[in-house]
Amino acid sequence: MTIKQMIQENNRLRERMTPANRDYVEDVIIAVRSTRADRQQAEKKLLEVASDVLKAQEAGRTASQLYGEDPAACARSIADALPKRKAIEGAAYYIMIPWAAFTFLFLVEAVFGLVAEWSGYAGEPINRISLLALIVLAAGSILLTELVTKTLNKPGSDEGSSKPKIDLKAIGVYLIILIIVMIIGFSMRTMLPVFTVNPWVSLVIGLVGLAGLRFIFLRRG
Questions:
Q1: Where are the beta strands (DSSP E) in the chain?
Q2: Helix (H, G, I), strand (E, B) or coil at 196
Q3: Do the beta carbons of residue 6 and residue 50 sit within 8 Å?
Q4: Residue partners of 110: CB distance under 8 A and separation at least 6
């Protein structure tokens, strides 16, 4: 089964549980998904947990009787037994996010700049990129991706759930961090340079960025 299929099946199993059992399993899910455990193996194990809890429920036993009173301890034991994502994968993930954002930025700059040139418009203001904008874009893209990922990892937000949950605490934390980054950046705006990038150069940078995404970050195997 794919990760998506396992998540959908896990959702269906939890819908058949008692409230107490469902809360227990969801606590385990949140804790395991927040670790560096391999995602495929983690979802496989979480599906086994949901299936075992449902079978135990049909036999008159609760999740806490099956796995212990503390769901956090249960999650730790599960995560410790699973293979971990390689450290390089984690670093590459956080490099890939701003890489993709910069690629999109330069492609957009190239399109607008070339259209302006072909229209006879002196497009220097269009082709000006500030270092501040690049810093804010890099930080903002990472924070936004983390926010979306954390929200989607909530059990109630998995595909197939009819009641999505929004982690307001996570939203608040990420917004505060982004605001701090922006304040620091704007306080240094007179110290940070502004570049004029020719639209053809922007196009080349964008194409190189696309190639990097395809052959460095998104290669298979």
A1: 128-130, 194-196
A2: strand
A3: no
A4: 199, 200, 202, 203, 206
Q: How far apart are CA 29 and CA 10, in angstroms?
A: 10
Residues 6+ apart with CB under 8 A from 8: 158, 159, 160
- Model pTM above 0.85: no
Give the tens place of pLDDT for each residue, 13-24. Answer: 999 999 999 999
pLDDT at 161 > cutoff 60: no
Look at residues 41, 60, 54 and name the one whose alpha carbon lies nearest to residue 10: 54
Indicate whether 43 pLDDT > 90.
Answer: yes
| DSSP 8-class letter at 195 | E
Phi, psi for 194 (deg, rounded to 5) = -120, 130
What residues have CB less than 8 Å from 106, skipping those under 6 apart? 197, 202, 203, 205, 206, 209
Q: Which amino acid is at 56?
A: A
Per-residue pLDDT tens for 73-85? 999 999 999 998 7
- Quote the Cα angle for 70-74-75, to 5°: 115
Tokens coding 72: 């956090």
Residue in this structure with the two tokens 């409230």, named with its chain if needed: 19
The CA R_g of the chain, rounded to the nearest whole Å, is 23
